[in-house]
Amino acid sequence: MKQIRIGVIGYGYWGPNLVRNFNDDSRADVAYVCDPQAAMLEKHRTRYKSVKFTSDLDELLLDKELDAVAIATPVDTHYSLAKAALEAGKHVLIEKPLCRTSSQGQELVNIAAERKLVLMVDHTFIYHGPIRLIKKLILQADLGEILFFNSVRVNLGNFQRDVNVLWDLGAHDLAIMDYLIGKRPREVFAIGSAHTDSQLADIAYLTMKFERDLIAHVNASWLSPVKVRQIVIGGTRRMIVFDDNSQVEKVKIYDKGIENMNLNLPTTASQIYSSRIQYRHGDMVAPVYDVTEALRVAVRHFLDCVTTGETPITDGAAGVRVVRMLEQADVSLASGKVTSYAAGNDDV
Fold it and tell me: What are residue 189's phi and psi, to 5 degrees?
């Protein structure tokens, strides 16, 4: 079987992880690493002797034997780089978020579809074993009807210069929420504060309301003294706590909840008793999940899609949905008002 020749664009924080995982997969041949900082590339030439390190982007895009590129650069460069790669006939794996605007993202989706190319967003947490397990449990209706999604993703730093904390940290949880719940919010409300000269919010709280009273809340911060990575999902049957900082038992399923949701005003003694909320306290189970590195699973999935033509789980449309939620959050942050989720082609 012919190897899939890959070029990795951007070799800062995430690029080396992509190179490592592609290099470890026998179906891939990492042909190029491209970054404008030539001096930085010199430090790594000896590690991957078969890889060509270059600062010339055109060298990658003009190589007709190159099948795909993986883009790990600042978000403001995503649109132009991905568009150039798609127009050059390359499959694209791109770091989150897909791009700056949903209209840019939709254009990329259209180009990929027209040219029958794979466009996949590296929403890495979707390929994380615990998240895949939770998705399976939701599909099996183990939780019942989902009532709420609550996430906390806070730590001290890493302050970004180009995006606020929701675009940086919150994008992970929005992608997870989109994947697990599979519904679009009807209303979006965000508040936040900026404590540096950049005026980019470094603390933000995002609340979204869905149909049937489903509510989601995302707390993202670069100004926390402790690192927290936790998601709580409540259902009518069971509830799940995902704690990514836990060394063991990252997923805990609680057989807890309420039995009586009828709060109509009672008129008799028996109605008063029967109308009381009954609490259910059952067992806690910590199931086993796949511990394979999430990025390794994502890279495998990308290579599978390039080989078979399968649509990625985190395809361009999924990336557009996340960007659209972030756009609405920005509007709300600026106005202090609730905004409506604007549906697009990805919601048809």
Answer: -140, 130
